[in-house]
């Protein structure tokens, strides 16, 4: 590729050329879901955004030269609460497993329908407890953590440049802290690495007693294990910058003695619904599942590729307003795009160039649409279109329809044309409607040479 990949880095507040630590193994970590409830449309955004980046990196560095890790947080007090509520009769461990397995399955089904590739590794927090204990041990040994009040806490004052990512100096955080300072904390900003568990809470044996990890330490442990002490890109939603990512950085850097945890930090913007902040109390809290499979949003179901394209029609760093109008717009665009096979073609330069400019999916979608229009007069461009659409993960699927069925439809279409010629519109409409009910859409047009009516058909999305 003749142009360079530029990414905006929250750490430096600048857009700069991306230079991987190792071109043979480009490493990216994105914070994954806490599995206790259906994923909502706000959760879908980072999954889609970083899927596009994953696809782009694979294109640039080669499919087998990118490692993408996205974790599953399967230990959390919200999970415990849900397990106790939903499975009061079960022993706690079984109840927790019931909640996390069901939620994880649903999450995978949801994001697959949104056209997202599976990450290279998807570690679970509970499979990495040993690694977390190892990091906490190191932090205590080198004076960055202490035991107090049944907890192991990170000492934020022990880190000279704590707060670099969020640009919040420690003093400012303390001055602004409205929460009452827990008496056992040395500094108000100190956060939990490990806490003791009571008998009705899940727990693991540790040097500090039977307990469970804090949230932040999970990501430090899993990224360290799968991507190394310093890796290329760390991603997530804007709401994770503080405290989650700030604290991940503090833990990893202080445990490993490194200057950075990841070189590039990328954050996607917030998601609103119909112009309002999404919240359960506002009643506009929509899950991916509801959008795909129920009629709660705009009175209808929405296909996964429409949701995905709607998401990519705004730059990832901008806030996005998720609305019926936006979904309809995405659907209109998609309906004009041809189904095609990339068959080894390279994506077009304008789409690549747009994506290489800090993932400018807005420009990429525009370029893709222009290309789709060009394919109407130049069929040779179809594979290029398909390869470009695939880079965004919005490749229209060719619906497989068997030949016998296809020729039956052709016969009905021909019959309808005869009826139209004979001005028997009632019968002609009957055929159109019957086909429509079976999901087949007819399109009438004129032959540019003879001027005669021609009808084509397609399987409706
Ligand atoms: Zn994380």
From TrEMBL:
Key words of the record: Aminoacyl-tRNA synthetase, ATP-binding, Cytoplasm, Ligase, Metal-binding, Nucleotide-binding, Protein biosynthesis, Zinc
Subunit architecture: Monomer.
InterPro entries the UniProt entry points to: Cys-tRNA-ligase, Cys-tRNA/MSH_ligase, CysS_C, Rossmann-like_a/b/a_fold, tRNA-synt_1_cat_dom, tRNAsynth_Ia_anticodon-bd
Gene name for this UniProt entry: cysS
Protein name: Cysteine--tRNA ligase
Primary location: cytoplasm
Motif ('KMSKS' region): 277-281
GO CC annotation: cytosol
Cofactor(s) needed: Zn(2+)
Source organism: Xaviernesmea oryzae
Residues holding Zn(2+): 31, 219, 244, 248
Cofactor note text: Binds 1 zinc ion per subunit.
Compartments in which it is found: Cytoplasm
């Amino acid at each position: 590729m003749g142009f360079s990949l530029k990414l905006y880095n929250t750490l430096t507040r600048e857009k700069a050329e991306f230079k991987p630590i190792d071109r043979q193994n480009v490493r990216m970590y994105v914070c994954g879901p806490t599995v206790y409830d259906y994923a909502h449309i706000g959760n879908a955004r980072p999954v889609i955004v970083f899927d596009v980046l994953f696809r782009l990196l694979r294109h640039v560095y080669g499919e087998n030269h990118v490692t993408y890790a996205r974790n599953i947080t399967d230990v959390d007090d919200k999970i415990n609460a849900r397990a106790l509520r939903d499975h009061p009769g079960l022993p706690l461990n079984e109840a927790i497993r019931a909640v996390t397995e069901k939620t994880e399955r649903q999450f995978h089904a949801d994001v697959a329908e949104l056209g997202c590739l599976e990450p290279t590794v998807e570690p679970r927090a509970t499979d990495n407890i040993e690694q977390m204990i190892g990091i906490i041990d190191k932090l205590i040994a080198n004076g960055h953590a202490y035991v107090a009040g049944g907890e192991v806490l990170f000492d934020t004052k022990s880190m000279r440049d704590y707060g670099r990512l969020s640009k919040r100096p420690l003093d400012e955080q303390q001055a602004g802290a409205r929460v009452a300072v827990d008496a056992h904390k040395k500094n108000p900003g100190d956060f939990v690495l490990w806490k003791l568990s009571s008998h009705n809470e899940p727990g693991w044996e540790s040097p500090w007693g039977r307990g469970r990890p804090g949230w932040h330490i999970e990501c430090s442990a899993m990224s360290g294990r799968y991507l190394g002490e310093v890796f290329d890109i760390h991603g997530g939603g804007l709401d994770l910058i503080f405290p989650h990512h700030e604290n991940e950085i503090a833990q990893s850097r202080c445990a490993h003695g490194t200057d950075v945890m990841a070189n590039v930090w990328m954050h996607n913007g917030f998601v609103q619904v119909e112009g309002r902040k999404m919240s359960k109390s506002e009643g506009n809290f929509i899950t991916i599942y509801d959008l795909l499979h129920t009629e709660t949003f705009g009175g209808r179901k929405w296909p996964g590729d429409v949701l995905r394209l709607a998401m990519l029609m705004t730059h990832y760093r901008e806030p996005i307003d998720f609305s019926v109008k936006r979904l309809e717009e995405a659907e209109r665009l998609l309906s004009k795009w041809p189904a095609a096979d990339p068959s080894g073609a390279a994506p077009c330069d304008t789409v690549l160039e747009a994506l290489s400019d800090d993932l400018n999916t807005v420009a990429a979608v525009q370029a893709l649409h222009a290309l789709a229009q060009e394919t109407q007069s130049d069929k040779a461009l179809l594979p290029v279109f398909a390869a470009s659409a695939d880079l965004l993960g919005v490749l229209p699927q060719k619906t497989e329809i068997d030949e016998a069925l296809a020729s039956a439809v052709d016969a009905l279409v021909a019959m309808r044309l005869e009826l139209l010629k004979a001005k028997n519109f009632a019968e002609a409409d009957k055929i159109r409607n019957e086909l429509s009910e079976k999901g087949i859409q007819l399109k009438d047009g004129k032959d540019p040479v003879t001027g005669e009516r021609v009808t084509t058909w397609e399987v409706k999305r």
